[in-house]
Amino acid sequence: MDKSMQKYLDKAEVLIEALPYIQRFNRKIIVVKYGGSAMLDEELEKRVIQDVVLLKLCGFKPIIVHGGGKEISRWVKKVGKEPKFVNGFRVTDEETMEIVEMVLSKVNKKLVQLVEELGIKAIGISGQDGGLLKVTRKYADGEDIGYVGTVCDVEPKILFDLIEKDFLPIVCSVGLDNDFQAYNVNADEAACKIASAVNAEKLAFLTDIEGVYKNPDDPSTLIPELSAEEALGLIRDGYIEGGMLPKLKSCIHALENGVSRIHIMDGRIPHCLLLEIFTNKGIGTAILNDQECRYYHG
Ligand SMILES: Nc1ncnc2c1ncn2[C@@H]1O[C@H](COP(=O)(O)OP(=O)(O)O)[C@@H](O)[C@H]1O
Ligand SMILES: CC(=O)N[C@@H](CCC(=O)OP(=O)(O)O)C(=O)O
């Protein structure tokens, strides 16, 4: 076979490699948590959005839940405050809450715009819309950390309605309590609770690190696969810190509540989502429920 023919065949093989994955996920809901840490520049954001749009055009039903933590911190500093976190949750006073709502709304509409540029209809909402995220005030180790909410209930009807009408829903993590007060919700928790409520086939996290490490300073300690129990063990043994803490805790909760496959990957790698979903390459850390672990290891 001549070289040019081989080149075409190689390309075709890459496309065909996607076939079983398209079959598996076709018409299934995939929740993509797009972390603020992976929103480094517009080029990268465009690639993430291209991936999600491709998933949609391949028959998947994607929902984007996004963060914006880094941008919120930037604005908190601009008003002369020092961002403060307890166990990975932002201490949120009234002024910070205002910043959270402003920044997340701006990020939300920016993502909507990028999707629309690709000819797909997107609707940006917050957890306040359609009663999506009901929250109660959260305390971190007994400490009052202000307007931080933990999700106690998800009303997914708005998401199903949007998906049915062929819109791509883009959600930011602000919720309402019973008195209709707005609260800042960690976006990882929001993504996990939403993934459980809509019975997502998969939940993918795009963040700023390759995956879960035993030691984040030593790249050789990347963990390719974890069960919920192993993830809990890592937290208990003190291997997990900062923003990874709410992420892993929420993942464990999601696995116990109907989500079977979760993937934490490096959103700074261009098209990481496509590579993870459509190819045999194992990227990042997969966190699987017991049934999926057995499926992969026999
Ligand atoms: N054991 C660990 N493995 C991987 N990341 C960890 C670990 N412990 C702490 N981290 C931190 O968690 C961060 C990811 O969480 P976060 O900053 O909240 O990202 P995002 O904005 O995507 O939610 C990483 O950049 C890393 O510094
Ligand atoms: C309570 C809490 O910590 N809320 C987060 C919400 C945004 C978020 O989670 O953004 P990332 O996904 O980019 O980290 C915050 O204020 O930073």
From TrEMBL:
Q: Where is the Aspartate/glutamate/uridylate kinase domain?
A: 28-266
Q: Which InterPro entries match?
A: AceGlu_kinase-like_sf, AcgluKinase_fam, ArgB, Asp/Glu/Uridylate_kinase, Glu/AcGlu_kinase, NAGK-C
Q: Which UniProt keywords apply?
A: Amino-acid biosynthesis, Arginine biosynthesis, ATP-binding, Cytoplasm, Kinase, Nucleotide-binding, Transferase
User: What is the top-level taxon of the source organism?
Assistant: Bacteria
SUPFAM superfamilies for this protein: Carbamate kinase-like (SSF53633)
Q: Which family does it belong to?
A: Belongs to the acetylglutamate kinase family. ArgB subfamily.
This chain's protein is named Acetylglutamate kinase
Provenance organism: Sellimonas caecigallum
